[in-house]
Here is the input.
Amino acid sequence: MTIPVIDFSNLAGEERAKTLAQIANCCEEWGFFQLINHGISEELLERVKKVASECYKVEREANFENSKPVKLLNEIIKKKNDEKIENVDWEDVFLLSDDNDDQWPSNTPNFKETMKEYRVELKKLAIKVMEIMDENLGLPKGYIFKAFNDGGEENKNAAFFGTKVSHYPPCPDPEKVNGLRAHTDAGGVILLFQDDEVKGLQILKDGLWVDVQPVKNAVVINIGDQIEVLSNGRYKSVLHRVLAMPDGNRRSIASFYNPSYEAILGPAPALLVGPEAAEGEVEVVDGLAKYPKFVFGDYMSVYAEQKFLPKEPRFQAVKTM
Ligand code: OGA
Ligand code: NI
Here is the structure.
C-alpha cells in the first residue's frame, strides 16, 4: 500500500472532475495524499532543502547532542535496559510564524529570505487545497477559509499559518525511541515537505502502519482535526507517527493552516441536511451533528495536554454548545 499521489496540474485540464474525485477519496479514505505539479518551483524547493540542512548543521546540531532524548537514550543503552522511551521524541524542531520572525534562525545565510518566500507559496497552496475541499464537500467556495478566519482575513482574528521545521537525526537504537509519537494534527490543513530519501513517516490505515513514501519535491497534504469536525466526519484526521531511523538525518517541514484561536468550530450546517428536506430546501437537523461546537483556542489547550492520546475525548472536553 502506498499513499496516493495526485497530479495537481490536472485540475486545470480535461481531467478536472476525475482529479477532484481522487482528492475527495483521499480525504475520505486516507486523510493523507501527496501532490505533485503543485505549482511551487523546484528551484525554490531546492533552496529550502539547502538552507534547512545548513541551518541544522550551523545552529541546531550541537544543541541536539545535549538534548533530553539523547541523554535518556544513552542512559538506557548504558544500562542495557530493554524499556522504550515514551515521553520524548527523537526530533529537533522549531516553529516559524509571522509573529516570531525576530526569533528565526539568523546565522544561516539566506535562511530567512528563503523561508519567507516558501511560506508565501505554501500559504497560497493551503488556500487552494481548502477551496478544493469546499467544492468536494458541496460548500460555497471560501467556506473553510472564512470559518478559520472567523469572518475575514483582515480582522485580528485571522487564521494562523505556522511552519514547523524538523530534523530527525540518525538514532543509535531506533527500537527504543520514537521520532515522533503517534498523534493526529489539531488544526486544519497540513502541508508537509519531507525528505527525498530518508523515510520514517507512517500513517495508520485499516489497522496497519503504512509508509508515506518519499516522492521528490512532492507536498504531502493531511487533514487536521478541525477539517474532520467541519466536514462532520466525512474527512478524517488520521493517526501518524515518525519512526527513528538508524541512518540519515530526515528533514521535514510541516506548514499548517489553522483556525484563529477565537474561531468557533463545528460541523458545517449545510452538511446537516435532513432527508425530508424538499428539493432546493435546506432543513438543518442538529441531531445529525457528530461533533459539538467549540472555540478553537479551548481545543488547543486540551490538545497541549492530550496530543498523544485518542482524539475523541478532546471534542467532548471542549464542548460549549
Ligand atoms: C507533525 C508531524 C511529521 C513529520 O509535525 O505533526 O506529524 O514528518 N510531522 O515531521
Ligand atoms: Ni502530525
Q: What stands out?
A: Residues 5-265 form a domain with the Jelly Rolls fold (CATH 2.60.120.330).
